[in-house]
Design goal:
The protein has about 950 residues and is an alpha/beta fold. Among the domains are: about 225-485, no CATH class; about 640-745, no CATH class; about 755-850, no CATH class; about 855-945, no CATH class. The protein contains 34 helices and 32 strands. Strands 4-21-7-6-22-23-25-24-5 form a 9-stranded mixed β-sheet, sandwiched between helices. Strands 8, 9, 10, 15, 18, 19 and 20 form a 7-stranded antiparallel β-sheet that branches. The longest helix is centred in the last third of the chain and has 23 residues, at about 850-870. The radius of gyration is 31 Å and the shape is globular. This is DNA methylase.
Length: about 950
């Protein structure tokens, strides 16, 4: 029954409605009607409780570590469960559209448009997470690939932004809607079909899913305000006295905003105490000096050269005597009632007495005391060295008192949804009130000054009050609820489980948008542990998909886990449908592993674009090798017709060309940007050949065509335009749109090995000297055709051995000066030593002039010859993956030294097809054979045995 068919007083949970009326009357959920939303919760909680009693249910991969009561307390079924969601099948059965190959007429090209959206939207800023994609960047993809009501899956959903995007397709903001429609019309895209999509969100972490729950299920702004007002009154009554301090007049009392604590070091020379801020902090500039003096012996010191001073104490929570790094309170910032002025003072006797009192008292409310997995989590050695081995030791005594009290008060609310949202708000204090909250220069707020992506305690920290963090957080949540309204449809199902195993039926999902953990970039599981400790519910980190040597998970283990994840995606996705994968990692090895995992699962990659999140993470902003743009991979599951035909035609030329025709249908016909047409890489002959080969290899089928035969055949069968190939029915569309642009961008160099990569980089840098961050996303897109035998090389290595980087010192090089003065009006006619020119040119790589290029070539040759020595060693039997440029350099040197035996022996370690297809290597090999009088191919039988 649809909403329009129902009586006026009844709401449908999976239809749009005003949140204020959610609990005021009957609701329907999964086809069942309940007298109220409370009754719905009670019914499904009991169903979940029954499942939790089943031992087999707890054996599901990724089942969290925790008690039944903790799981039930966090869950709001069937929308969200803090364990594997047993209602996913019901969700799909009720709302999904069964796949029928006989009637299915789905057809989409890849979404061939680079996307970007900032991180300032109120929904995005509602809660922090280690990495997330703005929902406004995801919505265009969902709108392109799906219809209203379709099911969208994200198996690595994190904070649930895919669900937000799916639901907001039914409630787009007016400005976003108008802008997107105008852009799509200009680009010639089919207009978007607005309407909510239904999302299935799966993540291993209970914390991530708790965030997803709070972002994806509606909350009454009025009810939340009422609850929050009551919450703040209660914490004022119970905690206010802890944050009182006397004004400097000795009469009035103020409210502490934060207390600055500073580490005490020991001088390595005189063993005297050094209060870090007293020696290194300049209150006028608000900055810390890198070098400071010991007040006792005047020795020049740094934090690295000093020794930590430790204090021993009895930890009542764990019943052990422990030691910790010594910190002392230095300064207090506070405000007076009715006065917005921020006052600062040194802690007085009253302040110190209060600190000592709280340090000697145990909090009366529960708090986590479990032990950290020292030695098995990121940065755990750093924490242990500072005396942090258990979760409660992240907090100074007052902070632990306050946070435990707030956690208890938030958990007392009877209404499940409001209780969850209050804890969602309080969660902001879990990190922000730890000793990781660093004290920085006066220009910064003191709230949540945490180094993102790591556990790290700085020499100066800020102990903030709850109000200092929560006042701003509460206002942002109110703004989000009132002005922007959360998705109201509740068309979402959230499951806490592994992405490698799910109850989702075969061929039941309409689209997949996913941002998996890529390699070792972010240790999500480790970083979630602190908040999980407060929920008393932990992820199964042994099931986490990542590359982490501490957990005995090598790159090969990670690759296998990713392969399993994509196999699961392939199973549940309907044939002919699409998967969008957002990739973020600066390592080529991880990029290669992802591509192989996608292909091995059966998907075919059709397009790679970029996603610019606009505001970088801490690592993106500060690390020299960080990547500031993500790659967006569009891959499809071949439809059932092709797979069925291929079973009959596998290994034949007919089957190969059938695949090419089907693949060409999946590629964009025309892509334009700024009045220019882009070359669609996937339509070039060498990539079409690679895709055909991969399709056969991944299915264990003999490849029926050589490269030469393929290139000859493609010319006969398909129409060529601008170096790209089209089906007959596609050519007319391309020709028509081609006339609307000024030009086609220059065909790009094919990057297949080190040599072509260097040429490609030279091509890029001659036109525009660029930074590593600018080059890297482009580079990753180009290396999709990298030869399997060629050793993968990191971009940094290629740049350092072949190009020069301007460090911002001295005159700006001619190459950079020419580019900047031509392309930036404000930099024209400036001398090469101008500071503005230096700043703009800093860290840009450029092609060296001939004099310096010779020196670089010598350095590079030494590196290549060193690697060649490993290849020629007797212990090296076969060279399956190697650096072709190193072999070329070694052969050249051996030829000059008339060391023909080395050329022959190394050549026979190389796959024969590689030797035969490289004219330089073949020349040296043939000449060496002639000089020694040996026979040629397989003369010693080695190749014949491969």
């Amino acid at each position: 029954m649809t909403k329009s068919d129902q009586p006026h007083t009844q709401q449908t949970i999976f239809d749009t409605e005003r949140p204020e009326t959610r609990d005021s009357g009957p609701v329907t959920c999964l086809g069942m009607t309940f007298e109220s939303d409370d009754a719905r919760r009670a019914h499904f909680l009991e169903k979940l409780r029954e499942r939790l009693r089943d031992p087999e249910f707890r054996e599901i991969e990724g089942f969290p570590i925790g008690s039944d009561e903790d799981i039930l307390a966090l869950s709001d079924p069937p929308y969200y469960t803090a364990c594997p969601n047993p209602f996913l099948e019901d969700f799909i059965r009720h709302y999904g559209k069964p796949y029928d190959s006989g009637t299915d007429n789905y057809r989409r090209e890849p979404f061939a448009s680079d996307t970007g959206a900032g991180k300032t939207h109120p929904i995005y800023t509602a809660h922090s997470y280690h990495s997330k994609i703005p929902h406004l960047a995801t919505m265009p993809c969902i709108l392109h690939y799906t219809e209203p009501g379709d099911i969208v899956l994200d198996g690595f959903s994190g904070s649930g932004m895919t669900g937000v995007a799916a639901q907001l397709c039914g409630q787009p903001e007016a400005e976003f809607k108008a802008t997107l429609e105008a852009e799509w019309k200009k680009a010639g895209f089919t207009p978007p079909k607005w309407g909510a999509r239904r999302a299935i969100l799966v993540d291993l972490s209970p914390v991530a899913n708790f965030i997803a729950y709070n972002l994806n299920l509606d909350v009454s702004a009025r009810e939340f305000k009422k609850a929050a007002d009551s919450f703040f009154k209660k914490i004022e009554a119970e905690l206010g006295w802890m944050y009182e301090t006397r004004h400097t007049d000795g009469k009035r009392k103020g409210r502490i905003n934060y207390v600055v604590w500073c580490e005490v070091f020991t001088c390595p020379n005189c063993a005297g105490d050094i209060v870090f801020m007293d020696q290194a902090y300049d209150p006028k500039t608000g900055k810390f000096a890198k070098e400071f003096e010991c007040p006792g012996c005047r020795a020049a010191l740094t934090t690295r050269s000093c020794e930590h001073k430790f204090t021993s104490y009895f930890d009542k929570a764990i019943g052990e005597t422990v030691r910790k790094v010594t910190y002392v309170p230095i300064e207090i910032e506070y405000t007076l009632p009715g006065d917005k002025t921020k006052y600062r003072k040194k802690p007085d006797a009253h302040d110190l007495e209060l600190i000592n009192r709280l340090g000697n008292e145990q909090p009366r409310d529960w708090y986590p005391t479990a032990k950290l997995p020292i030695g098995k989590m990121r940065d755990s050695n750093h924490l242990a060295e500072r005396g942090i081995t258990h979760y409660h030791q992240f907090y100074l005594p007052r902070a632990l008192h306050a946070l435990s009290t707030m956690w208890r008060i938030a958990g007392e609310w009877q209404n499940t949804r409001i209780r969850g949202f209050l804890k969602f708000m309080v969660e902001q204090c879990v990190w922000g009130m730890t000793v990781q909250n660093g004290y920085e220069s006066l220009a910064f707020s003191r709230a949540n000054r945490i180094l993102k992506g790591v556990y790290y305690v700085r020499p100066a920290i800020a102990e903030t009050s709850p109000w200092y963090i929560l006042d701003g957080k509460y206002k942002r949540l109110q703004k989000m609820l009132v002005a922007h309204q959360l998705p109201l449809s509740r068309q979402v199902a959230i499951s806490t489980a592994s992405s490698l195993q799910s109850p989702v039926p075969d061929k039941s999902v309409d689209y997949i948008y996913t941002d998996p953990p890529f390699g070792d970039a972010v240790k999500y599981g480790d970083l979630n542990l602190l908040i999980e400790a407060w929920h008393n519910l932990f992820s199964r980190l042994e099931n986490e998909v990542l590359w982490d040597e501490l957990k005995k998970k090598t790159l090969s283990v990670y690759s296998d886990l990713m392969r399993r994840a994509f196999v699961e995606y392939y199973r549940v996705l309907k044939p002919g449908r699409w998967m969008t994968v957002v990739f973020h990692n600066s390592k080529n090895l991880v990029w290669t592993a992802i591509q192989e995992a996608i292909g091995d699962a059966g998907f075919v990659v059709a397009d790679v674009r970029t996603l610019d999140r606009e505001q970088g993470s801490f690592n993106q902003v500060t690390a020299a090798g960080a990547v500031k743009q993500d790659l967006v991979i569009s891959a499809y599951k071949p439809n059932g017709g092709l797979e069925d035909r291929f079973k009959l035609e596998a290994g034949t030329e007919k089957g190969a060309w059938d695949f090419v025709r089907t693949h060409l249908k999946q590629l964009p016909v025309f892509v334009s940007k700024d009045g220019q047409a882009e070359v669609i890489a996937g339509r070039q002959n060498y990539l079409l050949f690679d895709r055909m080969v991969a399709f056969h290899v991944q299915r264990g089928v003999t490849i029926p065509l050589s490269a030469a035969e393929f290139y000859a055949g493609i010319i006969q069968r398909f129409s060529e335009r601008d170096g790209m190939y089209f089906l007959p029915e596609q050519v007319a569309e391309y020709d028509k749109k081609r006339m609307t642009v000024r030009e086609v961008l220059q065909l790009q160099l094919f990057v297949t090995d080190e040599s072509s990569a260097i040429q490609w980089l030279k091509q890029q840098l001659v036109k525009k000297p660029q930074t590593f961050q600018e080059l890297h996303p482009q580079f990753l897109k180009e290396i999709g055709g990298w030869q399997k035998y060629e050793k993968p090389l990191e971009l940094f290595e290629l740049l350092e051995q072949n190009f020069l980087r301007y460090d911002g010192k001295g005159d700006v090089p001619n190459q950079i000066h020419s580019y900047l003065s031509t392309n930036f009006k404000e930099l024209r006619n400036l001398p090469k030593a101008d500071e503005n020119l230096r700043a703009k040119g800093k860290d840009r790589w450029y092609v060296p002039d001939p004099n310096k290029a010779g020196d670089l070539e010598k350095l590079r040759e030494r590196s290549l010859l060193k690697e060649f020595e490993e290849y020629r060693a007797p212990s090296q039997k076969r060279l399956k993956v190697f650096r072709l440029e190193a072999v070329r350099a070694g052969f050249k040197k051996a030829w000059q030294e008339r060391d023909y035996a080395t050329i022959i022996s190394v050549a026979r370690k190389i796959p024969e097809n590689v030797l035969q297809e490289d004219p330089k290597l073949l020349m040296w090999y043939d000449q060496a054979i002639t000089r020694t009088g040996e026979t040629g191919n397989g003369g010693n039988g080695e190749w014949g045995n491969e």
